[in-house]
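forwarding from the other thread:

> can someone predict this with magnesium ion?

sure thing
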Amino acid sequence: MTLATYASDPSKTRGRRFAESVAPTRTDYQRDRDRIVHSTAFRRLVYKTQVFLNHEGDLFRTRLTHSLEVAQLSRSIARPLGLNEDLVEAVALAHDLGHTPFGHAGQDALNECMAPHGGFEHNLQSLRVVDQLEERYPAYDGLNLTFETREGILKHCSHRNAELIDQSEPGGVGRRFLDRSQPSLEAQLCNLADAIAYNAHDIDDGVRSGLITMVQLQSVELFERYRVEALVEFPDLAEPSRARRLLYETIRRMLSAQVYDVIAATRQSLLKAAPASADEARLAGPLLRFSPAMHAQSTALKQFLFAQLYRHPQVMQMTGQAQIVVRELFEAYTAQPSEMPAEHAARPDAARAVADYIAGMTDRFAGREHERLTGRKLL
Ligand code: MG
């Protein structure tokens, strides 16, 4: 792997919170990636909702398959740009570790429950998972990841929370939200790859579920252009029996176009800004980007999915049920902490302990716990 001057270089890492000896054959970012893959929170992603609740079908994306797709896209873009593939992989695989069960519905419900106690943000929770909640090492809590991986995991953060992080870790991962600098180029890349991934796979899952149709998607420029292109090259894809292949071929072309667009547009912005190091890149404004035309098309697709899929009455009804499950779990554990495992029940920060416990649950465990505690089966 040939690193560009502006790439994150593991030999120049800002290091880990607890000093460790170097590994004989792996770089620090490889070690981070390996720690993430072996973590408990990572395995739980397989039973956590992306958009469709886990029990609605076996082929829908879950947080795990989504994270793998983000890692794949990130690596595909990182290599031609000379960025650090190990770091993008680590950040991509960890970026959703803090997600609650039931996707954004779960996160919104938990955030409401936690409003009097500092709220709940899934990005911040991802950082809590790798910094504090994983229990794997004898000498410290968390996974003790490098600054660069932690920086990439904390994708967004409120000003208030950034101040709190900066108090406990001066000049650390909260700082950039206060001085408005950028994270590493690798972190910027994962952020963009996240959107490319969900825009594509949510089309696939949306059509599979029957909630959106190929006909509706023809109003989306980014989709329609490649659907037509695919049909010109393979006219037999117009046959109803080949509709699924037409969908896949369209999505495949869309993905390639976005990947090549990001590479070309970013090469230009890197040429112009000419950062001599990863730290100079952090101060140069966002450099990882789409071309303006692709940015507009990607935004239009996102808006389509928001209106037609994420706000679909059938999705809204399921997410409404999921929010009740999270709220009632929160109430039940708050009233009776002994219903949680002893290590959660014993914590002095009772509300945060309940939030951490619920946030760590898979969809199906949350559903089972809710049934056990309330006697009602909502999902
Ligand atoms: Mg994501």
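The first helix runs from residue 28 to 37. thats all i got for now
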